[in-house]
Write a structure and sequence with these properties.
Elements: H1 2-19, E1 35-37, E2 40-42, H2 63-69, H3 75-89, H4 99-121, E3 127-130, H5 139-143, E4 158-162, E5 172-177, H6 181-186, H7 190-202, E6 205-208, E7 216-221, E8 231-234, H8 238-247, E9 252-255, H9 263-272, E10 276-279, E11 301-304, H10 313-319, H11 322-332, H12 339-349, E12 354-356, H13 359-362, H14 391-403
Parallel strand pairs: 3-6, 6-9, 10-11, 11-12
Antiparallel strand pairs: 1-2, 4-5, 4-7, 7-8
Helix pairs in contact: 1-4, 3-4
Length: 413
């Protein structure tokens, strides 16, 4: 909880700095926070009130009394307070574009913590994703440019991407800053330790995106127009991965090991002990060079019908080549209209220790429910589950989970 509290206080501090206005944060235990802005009072803690017009009169001597007056609240109360702040800001145009975005970031952070808290109460585990790279406009780059491949300031010299393949003739030019791995190693990967500490404070299981980039990564000159002109460069490998395992030995990791895998990458994955990923759609995609057929899966793996980067399974059926769809139906012994359900069952029936089925596939939704299309901008991360889930669907999920022996044992419930 202490790490989570520091995250929240850090965001509130950023709000204060961006506005060049005083922002008071009560140093209370988790979820006992109150903040104010000149002339704007936000009541987060029941019983803690700061009168309008009195904000500039508060001094250090007043804080203990305010603390004593602050009552313990539930996580939802704090989110309600943030909602109040956003509503109040709608009538203050001079703050538009400054505070609202940061408050929404804070609210999202609190929502993550709330979901994590409620999940633990229900003995559920939350799986979260940590991207291997950060954004070029991130505070990570601004505050520590020496940890990235820059000219010493914040100007990038090399950026991330991936080489051409059957899915992208020009490769993928992501444009993310690349790490100066020797500098990270010289600091004993302290930056990565702090980054993973935050991830593990809000997730029970951490999926490491682009895991193969720790072994070697595709580096593209900053001014290149496509990723074709990139080259492979060695990464930190087990120097970093081994430390992550040692530092966070009570955390489960998933390695996103999709894409071009060399023997060296496979050796690193094996040495890490992390489960890799298997994508059922890839098993029947003629463009995919790897073998993702279910009989090849090891126990230590996580199988998906598709991930957030794939079209939904129903969308795949509608957009894949007729030959690929025919092959999938022959292999899974089903009619085309039953392919989504057959792929779900194939995932659950596999020997993979974990099976993940996106909600859009349980609902048999088409391409309109796709979450992300790699290397594109504008229309991603917009799908929302806006229809109530039925008891019939819940019973169906429970039935298949039990049928394929993936229900927890009674002693573990």
């Amino acid at each position: 909880m202490a790490a989570s509290r520091r995250v929240i206080q850090g965001v509130l501090h950023q709000i204060s700095q961006s506005l060049a206005r005083p922002l008071w944060i009560a140093e209370q235990p988790f979820f006992r926070l109150s903040l104010y802005l000149n002339g704007l009072t936000l009541l987060i803690c029941p019983g803690l009130q700061i009168p309008d017009g009195a904000v500039n009169q508060l001094g250090d001597k007043d804080i203990p009394a305010l603390k004593d007056n602050a009552a313990a609240v539930q996580p939802g109360d704090l989110q309600h307070g943030l909602d109040q702040l956003l509503h109040a800001l709608e009538g203050r145009p001079h703050l538009a574009g400054k505070l609202p975005y940061r408050v929404r970031v804070l609210r999202l952070t609190l929502q993550d913590l709330l979901v994590h808290h409620q999940g633990r109460q229900r003995r559920l585990q939350l799986v979260g994703d940590i991207p291997i790279y950060v954004s070029p406009d991130s505070s990570d780059l601004w505050t520590r440019p020496e940890l990235f491949q820059t000219d010493g300031q914040t100007h990038l010299t090399q950026v991330a991407g991936c080489p051409p393949d059957a899915f992208a003739a020009d490769g993928q030019l992501w444009g993310n800053p690349l790490y100066d791995w020797p500098r990270h190693k010289a600091e004993d990967f302290a930056w990565w330790k702090r980054r993973m500490q935050h991830a593990t404070s809000i997730y029970d299981v951490v999926r490491i995106d682009h895991f193969r980039g720790f072994e070697s990564f595709w580096a593209v000159p900053f001014d290149a127009e496509t990723a074709k002109v990139g080259r492979w460069v060695k990464g930190p490998g087990m120097d970093l991965v081994g430390r992550l395992t040692a530092w966070f030995n009570n955390v489960s990791f998933i390695a996103e090991d999709l894409g071009y895998l060399t023997p060296e990458v496979k050796a690193m994955l094996s040495a890490s002990g992390y489960p890799g990923m298997k994508i059922m759609q890839f098993a029947f995609d003629s463009r995919e060079p790897g073998n993702y057929l279910p009989y090849t899966y090891p126990h230590n793996s996580v199988v998906y019908t598709g991930t957030h980067d794939n079209v939904t399974t129903e969308g795949w059926r509608q957009s894949a080549s007729p030959e690929d769809v025919h092959y999938a139906c022959r292999y899974l012994r089903c009619l085309p209209e039953d392919l989504t359900e057959a792929m779900i069952c194939a995932c659950l029936a596999s020997v993979s220790d974990m099976a993940i089925i996106p909600m859009a596939d349980w609902l048999h939704l088409g391409a309109e429910a796709r979450i992300n299309t790699p290397s594109t901008q504008g229309a991603n991360w917009q799908w929302r589950l806006d229809t109530p889930l039925t008891s019939l669907l819940a019973e169906h999920i429970a039935d298949l989970t039990a049928l394929y022996d993936r229900a927890p044992a009674a002693a573990d419930r």
